[in-house]
From TrEMBL:
GO terms for cellular component: extracellular region. Keywords: Disulfide bond, Protease inhibitor, Signal. Residues 61-75 form the Bowman-Birk serine protease inhibitors family domain. GO terms for molecular function: serine-type endopeptidase inhibitor activity. Gene3D superfamilies: Cysteine Protease (Bromelain) Inhibitor, subunit H. The keyword Iron-sulfur does not apply. It comes from Panicum hallii var. hallii. The keyword Disulfide bond applies. This is Bowman-Birk serine protease inhibitors family domain-containing protein. Residues 1-19 form the signal peptide. InterPro entries: Bowman-Birk_prot_inh, Prot_inh_BBI, WIP1. It comes from the Eukaryota.
Length: 103
């Protein structure tokens, strides 16, 4: 009877630990994938006002625009209403581009 209780207690303690281990492994795999499979854009955007540097040594442009620059390989819709707007989600090895001029 005591051994079955002990077994139940051990299993109940192992479940959260396994969940934590699985979550950490998944996060590490995602980080590894993003570094290993991430394509970097060798070009430069025509302009980028919000060019951000990450600790990985890559830059991203956080500008929201009405149309992505032709250099952009991965342009995503970030707003649909009232006007569709986009953001280039590429990563760049060097600064994204010169600051955009305000119209």
């Amino acid at each position: 009877m005591k051994s079955s209780r002990l077994l139940v207690i051990l299993v109940l303690q192992a479940v959260p630990v396994m969940g934590i281990i699985a979550a950490v492994a998944k996060e590490n795999a995602a980080v590894g994938e993003s570094k290993g499979n991430m394509e970097t854009n060798g070009g430069k955007l025509g302009c980028c006002t919000n060019c951000n540097f990450s600790f990985s040594g890559l830059y991203t442009c956080d500008d929201i625009v009405s149309k992505c620059d032709p250099v952009c390989k991965a342009c995503k819709v970030v707003k649909k209403y009232p006007v569709k707007q986009f953001q280039c989600t590429d990563t760049f090895l060097s600064i994204c581009g010169p600051p955009c001029k305000k119209n």
